Amino acid sequence: xxxxxxxxxxxxxxxxxxxxxxxxxxxxxxxxxxxxxxxxxxxxxxxxxxxxxxxxxxxxxxxxxxxxxxxxxxxxxxxxxxxxxxxxxxxxxxxxxxxxxxxxxxxxxxxxxxxxxxxxxxxxxxxxxxxxxxxxxxxxxxxxxxxxxxxxxxxxxxxxxxxxxxxxxxxxxxxxxxxxxxxxxxxxxxxxxxxxxxxxxxxxxxxxxxxxxxxxxxxxxxxxxxxxxxxxxxxxxxxxxxxxxxxxxxxxxxxxxxxxxxxxxxxxxxxxxxxxxxxxxxxxxxxxxxxxxxxxxxxxxxxxxxxxxxxxxxxxxxxxxxxxxxxxxxxxxxxxxxxxxxxxxxxxxxxxxxxxxxxxxxxxxxxxxxxxxxxxxxxxxxxxxxxxxxxxxxxxxxxxxxxxxx
Length: 406
Hints:
Elements: H1 7-14, H2 16-24, H3 33-40, H4 46-66, H5 77-82, H6 86-98, E1 103-107, H7 113-120, E2 124-129, H8 132-144, E3 151-155, E4 168-171, H9 194-202, E5 206-211, E6 225-231, E7 234-243, E8 257-262, E9 266-269, E10 284-288, H10 290-294, H11 298-304, E11 308-309, E12 317-319, E13 328-338, H12 341-350, E14 353-360, H13 367-374, E15 381-390, E16 393-401, H14 402-405
Parallel strand pairs: 1-2, 1-4, 2-3, 4-5, 6-8, 14-15
Antiparallel strand pairs: 5-7, 6-7, 8-9, 10-12, 10-13, 11-12, 13-16, 15-16
């Protein structure tokens, strides 16, 4: 598949002929790409057809992040990969608006995903990126979604942009290698480096700085609140929040750790609790959300449910009674057994278990390998199997979600 790689081809997509092609390919089936290309090249230039097909494919990929908007938007391959999911961008924009932010400099804006969410929250945005193609896409996206009046796109080096006079700064450094294409784990290898982004953030009344969720806690600045965000149970990103202008209840808490769960919007601000003492497995097991684990707030959830750890090194909480919490999924535990495949297989056969969800934490056993050995048949019952450690010993916990216990 040929992607748009130059401004001339991208401009041709915005012209009437390109627009007609994109409209025709709106419900295009990628499996029919060769036939579609052959047919369309009879009436249109081959480069334009290839670009339109590439854009149609990118729009389909982007639907997972942008929903219905993706059908109207324009993307680059990197833009689809690196842009913020719309639900996460909307959460951040809502928080910035609640801080009283009305103007914002969006540095490293890419194809404009965050700028769109910010503009929809009523914030006037200066969107800056040094990639001309990304800027062209951001400009086209603002126009396509009726937000051009609130988004100014500027192609420039973000390190040379004067952000004085803006209520806030948002920085989203590139975290993928242009040479190898993989993720960058060293914050100082971001583009621009994390240290530059932090200093840029400190110059504004408010700032948000998007970073990888796996960032080491010892790399976090003491004057920032760090928020880990999950969407549908999957951790998406971390954000450093800076604020020197108040902001009331929405204002950042320097040095704090926060876990926010979407789509509910539940947000847990850490209290700096020590890990609870481990103890025996009770009737209930709690699996904390990934954002809670990344934020090191397992102890806070354990306090909520009056629980304890099953092992000092494992992020599973156990308790003797069920307590509702938004920050963990609860399971009723029926069996606590030393790890033994033969005994597990016999037990599942005895209970007519045909469907098993296998989870692991702190175990070297791969769930799919275990599933093959269990050879589950057509039993009418189901269960959840946890492969983990309890007090240092390899253990199997059997149970089922709390919702099925009621």
